[in-house]
User: What shape does this take?
Amino acid sequence: MKHLFAIAGLGLLAAPASAAIYTLGGPLAEGCYEAASSKYTSRFAVEGCTRALAEEGLAPADRAATLVNRGIVHMARGQEIAADTDFDAALAIDPGLADAYLNKGFLRIRTGHGRDALPLIQKGLDLGAQEKAVAVFGRGVAHEQMGNYAKAYRDFQRARELAPKWDLPATYLADYRVGGR
Assistant: This one.
């Protein structure tokens, strides 16, 4: 299964972008992926994802991917409980799905709960997150929310090294001043 991360411009202390998962399950599942990767927040996007899950007879991997993608749409709509429920349902199908853990972590960051986000993001990294820079960046935001600024700084630096053309890590690093005592 091909994984793709949708990168969006974010303000300071905002959650990193979510990890949409490409699926070959059918046209509705593919539309759900497109909605998740473009952060399309219409109720029609949620309905399309729900129809894909109900009507397309998806293989387990595609079903899990579609649940993650619908969760991303829910998250973009500010529907945190529905998003978390979808991520949990995806993990019930595939407990090794790195993107489900990452998105659960990103959801915690969005709600200001970096301490809860950190183990989820780390689990996604440990399971082999496809877009390591996004995951490391998210871990940095979680550290920042917890007041662990040295660790946050290191993660933002690492994210910049992993994805030098991505400007968000540099934006966060610009707020840091490194100095000796």
Notes: The chain has a mean pLDDT of 87. Residues 27-132 form a domain with the Serine Threonine Protein Phosphatase 5, Tetratricopeptide repeat fold (CATH 1.25.40.10).
